[in-house]
Write a structure and sequence with these properties.
The complex is a heterodimer.
Chain A: H1 5-17, H2 22-34, H3 37-54, H4 67-112, E1 117-118, E2 136-140, E3 146-148, E4 154-159, E5 162-166, E6 172-176, E7 191-194, E8 201-204, E9 210-213, E10 218-222, E11 232-243, E12 252-255, E13 259-272, E14 276-290, E15 296-299, E16 304-312, E17 318-326, E18 340-347, H5 348-356, E19 374-380, H6 385-394, E20 400-402, E21 405-407, E22 427-428, E23 431-432
Parallel strand pairs in A: 1-19, 6-8, 11-12
Antiparallel strand pairs in A: 2-3, 2-7, 4-5, 5-6, 7-10, 8-9, 9-11, 10-11, 11-13, 12-13, 13-14, 14-15, 14-16, 16-17, 18-19, 20-21, 22-23
Chain B: H1 6-16, H2 20-41, H3 46-62, H4 64-68, H5 73-100, H6 115-128, H7 134-146, H8 150-157, H9 161-182, H10 185-188
Helix pairs in contact in B: 1-2, 2-3, 2-5, 3-5, 6-9, 7-9, 8-9
Classes of the chains: A alpha+beta, B mainly alpha.
Chain lengths: 439, 189
């Protein structure tokens, strides 16, 4: 009966042979419900095997199959599927590579690679602003100040026994005349060399000291009275000073608003205002001495820095705050002197604040400045307003002009990112519609 | 339950190593049996059965690496054959229904079942359940009424599968003996 495997297999054989009765068929179906499928298939396989062996010549195999053709077709389909999979993998890998490449390219452009330079520039050999680009003002004696520019060369003036000239390299040279100053001649002459917004000017003093003034800086020079007295040199603002080796181990003294700098040979950058002086040593050695309390610090290794600040002690008494430090990033100190200023991944608002004054433009507001926007670009010292605006727009921010004031907000919508009324330079195939150049 | 014969297992393993010779030999062994097996689902219609056989052989070649890892690859092959046969059966029924629309009242033998005998048998089975222990009856009813596997029944009741198999074997024996007593010997062979 159906609890017996051999009986069930017998029913199966009858079913296969087509000799099963209706009741046997019903029994077979009932048995099927009483066994797991695995058990049932096993019994089926055994039943068929027994049938195969019991039949003379085995069970008929029907129309012979073309097994090689089956294998070829299957393998062809598998290869196609594998190829599609491979291509899909290649496509995904290509996409990932493209994204990675874009990221690397962006990082390279922002941090390592050459930056696009805005403005026309021909730097000096050392990368600094060339002398031909120097601008400033020289004031001396009772003479009206002389504006130094592209048209001013050669002899500028004479004061006392000092001659003021502009040489072919563009540097203003202060030199001693052949005749010594008469004794008791009264007040010693003072020469003031100054720079305005966006100007830089190189000066060479009679003892060979070279001073490059950054914008908004002043160099004052007064010769010493007679042969023994030292000249008086004063600096305010930011300046790069190069003092050559002095004869007979002498020292040069340079005054700032709150300190003195003494050196026999040094290259250094000084940034000084009335109550604060910062000095970065680039070469040689120097001593910095605070004016009030005569606190002294020596800078001996390139990268050494000192800060001297007028302060007050806890009890309110004035005091000098002197701090020394060191940084290996010596080149940063002269970034301002470079003909091309690089901005790598710099916040856009920092870039705008630093340069807007230089180009004499005012931004009505910076509210529409996108948060977190950074720029990477290089700006030439001769860059124009157009170049400055082009840097901003190249990085996806439009600038609008309204009644002489600049804004980043669309005047119509008050929102950013609108192009409706922008005077923004639009670069097309023929160049900028505003300035004609390619941005 | 008997496991497949050793030499056939070897052939399946060789097939898993992409042996075309093993594939040919397996066909020689199983083609006839599979045809018969498939035929039971398709009322032994030759052409559809041969189509299914070809599909089964194709599936065997495609899945040769998988089948070779099975402990009972023969059973797995029959399972493929059954599934393919059932798919073909559905296709044929669909086609036959469409054909039959033109001949109302004509009933294909594929649609006919020995219903009377089935109903009689079912009645006897339910009577036989009275002789089962509660546990045997519970296990039997899970399988008979719900079609659960032994593993599923074991999981439901929190017992091991072998316990379920033992209960089911006992239930089958009691029911089989009851049926043997109550059915006409001429009908049951």
């Amino acid at each position: 009966m159906i609890h017996n495997v051999d009986y069930v297999k017998g029913l199966m054989r009858k079913r296969f042979e087509g000799t099963i009765s209706p009741m046997e068929s019903a029994l077979l179906r009932a048995a099927h419900r009483m066994y797991d499928e695995g058990e049932w298939l096993r019994m089926t396989a055994q039943a068929l095997e027994e049938m195969d062996h019991a039949t003379e010549g085995g069970l008929p195999k029907g129309t012979p199959l073309d097994l090689p053709a089956i294998r070829r077709e299957v393998d062809r389909k598998r290869r196609g599927a594998a190829r599609s999979k491979a291509w899909a993998r290649v496509a995904v890998a290509a996409m990932l590579l493209a994204v990675l490449g874009w990221g690397i390219k962006k990082y390279w452009e922002d941090h390592l690679g050459p930056l696009r330079v805005y403005g026309d520039c021909t730097p000096a050999v050392d990368g600094t602003i060339p002398g031909t680009g120097f601008e400033g003002t020289v004031a001396y004696g009772d003479a009206p100040p002389v504006a130094i520019g592209t048209a001013v060369w050669g002899h500028i003036g004479t004061v006392g026994n000092l001659s003021i000239d502009r040489d072919t390299s563009g540097v203003v040279v202060i030199s001693k005349g052949r005749e010594a100053a008469p004794s008791g001649a009264g007040m010693l002459p003072v020469i003031r060399v100054s720079t305005g917004k966006g100007e830089q000017l190189g000066v060479r003093l009679p003892d060979g000291t070279r001073v490059r003034l950054n914008e908004g800086a002043v160099l004052s020079y007064s010769p010493g009275g007679g042969e023994s007295a030292a000249p008086a040199v004063g600096v305010s603002g930011v300046a790069f000073v190069q003092v050559p080796r002095q004869e007979n181990s002498g020292q040069v003294g340079i005054g700032t608003g709150n300190s003195w700098i003494y050196t026999g040979k040094a290259d250094f950058v000084v940034a000084t205002a009335e109550e604060r002086t910062g000095i970065t040593l680039l070469d040689g050695g120097l001593r910095a001495v605070s004016r009030r309390e005569k606190k002294e610090r020596s800078l001996q290794v390139p990268g050494d820095r000192v800060s001297i600040e007028n302060g007050r002690a806890l009890d309110g008494t004035p005091t000098d705050i002197v701090v020394t430090m060191h940084s290996d990033r010596v080149a940063d100190a002269l970034q301002w002197a470079r003909a091309i200023k690089e901005y790598r991944d710099v916040p856009l608002d920092d870039f705008i604040r630093e340069n807007a004054g230089r180009f004499h433009i005012r931004f009505k507001d910076l509210n529409c400045l996108p948060k977190g926007k950074h720029i990477s670009a290089a700006l030439c010292y001769r860059a124009s307003v157009d170049d400055f605006l082009a840097v901003i727009e190249k990085h996806g921010v439009l600038v609008y002009e309204e009644n002489g004031q600049y804004t980043l907000c669309d005047p119509k919508t008050g929102k950013r990112w609108s192009r409706s009324t922008a005077i923004a330079h639009v670069a097309d195939g023929d160049g900028c519609t505003q300035c004609g150049r390619f941005h | 339950m008997d496991k497949p014969k050793g030499n056939n297992i070897t052939l399946f393993r060789q097939l898993g190593e992409h042996s075309e010779t093993a594939f040919d030999k397996l066909y020689d062994i199983y083609a006839g049996r599979l045809l018969v097996f498939i035929g039971t689902y398709l009322s032994f219609e030759t052409e559809p059965a041969e189509d299914v056989l070809a599909e089964v052989m194709e599936a065997l070649w495609i899945q040769r690496e998988q089948i070779a890892t099975k402990t009972d690859p023969e059973r797995w092959m029959y399972k493929i054959a059954k599934n393919r046969a059932l798919e073909m059966r559905k296709v044929l029924i669909r086609h036959r229904y469409e054909a039959l629309d033109e001949y109302p009242g004509l009933v294909s033998d594929m649609l006919t079942d020995s219903k009377l005998e089935g109903d009689e048998l079912e009645g006897l089975v339910w009577e036989a359940l009275e002789g089962l222990t509660p546990t045997e009856r519970e296990v039997f009813e899970c399988k008979w009424l719900e079609g659960l596997t032994s593993a599923a029944i074991a999981k439901r009741h929190g017992v091991i599968e072998q316990t379920v198999n033992n209960q089911m074997t006992a239930a089958r024996k009691k029911i089989g003996e009851y049926l043997a007593e109550h059915l006409d010997p001429d009908d049951i062979g």
